[in-house]
């Protein structure tokens, strides 16, 4: 038993040092007073009670390290999500500007051919941004016009008289988006009365 305890204590001391170094929990190791300078005689003659206490301290330290790792992972995921949300919000603003540019072309005094070419350029840029968002963030626009309004995906701004069935979307004010199937921005729509 003494040889097993000695081996365990050596392993425990090494583990404490490694864990303390890797996680910044050296103050906890100092509190537990696990040091290299334990005399050999003490290592061999340690009581079962002290051995059990050290083993429990080691298990507690392992649990603390796991909690610490879990918390770090969660904080990292939250930071990444927040940063990605900021990027996506900027991308949505750019997409809204492209949509607005295409719509404003209709009001300009341009030849139909020129208007079509400019609209095609804006549409190509919009499609490139949407493709990038889909490939890198699994962000997809919510299809709206011609479908029944769904409160999960659509924010109804107003109702207008229309030949469509009541509640069918007749105009989209602002495009909505989903990410991994979750709504991250509702589509703002106008529906038939």
List its traits.
193 residues, alpha+beta, Nucleotide Exchange Factor Grpe, Chain A, domain 2, three-stranded antiparallel beta sheet, three-stranded mixed beta sheet, 61% helix, elongated
Notes on the structure:
By secondary structure, the chain is α+β, with helices and mostly antiparallel strands. The strands form 2 sheets. The protein has a 3-stranded antiparallel beta sheet with strand order 1-4-5. The longest helix has 58 residues. The model has no long low-confidence stretch (mean pLDDT 82). Helix content is 61%, strand content 15%. Among the domains are: 71 residues; 54 residues, Nucleotide Exchange Factor Grpe, Chain A, domain 2. It is elongated and about 95 Å long. α1 runs antiparallel to α2 and α4 packs antiparallel against α5.
Integer-rounded radius of gyration: 32 Å
Record field, number of beta strands: 6
Head-to-tail CA distance between termini: 85 Å
**Percentage of β-strand residues:** 15-25%
The secondary structure category is alpha+beta
General shape: elongated
What is the helix content?
A: 55-70%
Biggest sheet overview = 3 strands, antiparallel
Average of per-residue pLDDT values: 82
Give the spatial strand order of the biggest sheet: 1-4-5
Order of helices and strands: HHHHHEEEEEE
User: Which residue ranges are poorly predicted, with pLDDT under 50 across at least 5 consecutive positions?
Assistant: none
Number of helices: 5
């Amino acid at each position: 038993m003494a040889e097993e305890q000695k081996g365990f204590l050596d392993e425990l001391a090494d583990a404490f040092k490694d864990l303390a170094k890797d996680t910044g929990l050296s103050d906890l190791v100092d509190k537990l007073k696990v040091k290299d300078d334990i005399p050999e005689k003490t290592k061999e003659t340690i009581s079962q009670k002290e051995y059990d206490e050290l083993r429990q301290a080691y298990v507690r330290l392992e649990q603390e390290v796991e909690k610490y790792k879990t918390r770090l992972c969660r904080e990292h995921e939250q930071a990444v999500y927040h940063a990605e949300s900021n990027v996506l919000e900027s991308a949505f603003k750019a997409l809204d500007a492209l949509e607005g540019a295409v719509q404003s072309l209709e009001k300009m005094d341009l030849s139909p051919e020129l208007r079509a070419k400019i609209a095609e350029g804006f549409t190509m840029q919009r499609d490139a941004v949407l493709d990038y968002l889909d490939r890198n963030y699994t962000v997809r626009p919510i299809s709206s016009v011609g479908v029944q309004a769904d409160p999960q995906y659509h924010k109804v701004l107003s109702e207008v008289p229309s030949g469509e069935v009541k509640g069918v979307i007749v105009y989209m004010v602002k495009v909505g988006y989903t990410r991994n199937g979750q709504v991250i921005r509702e589509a703002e729509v106008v529906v038939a009365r």
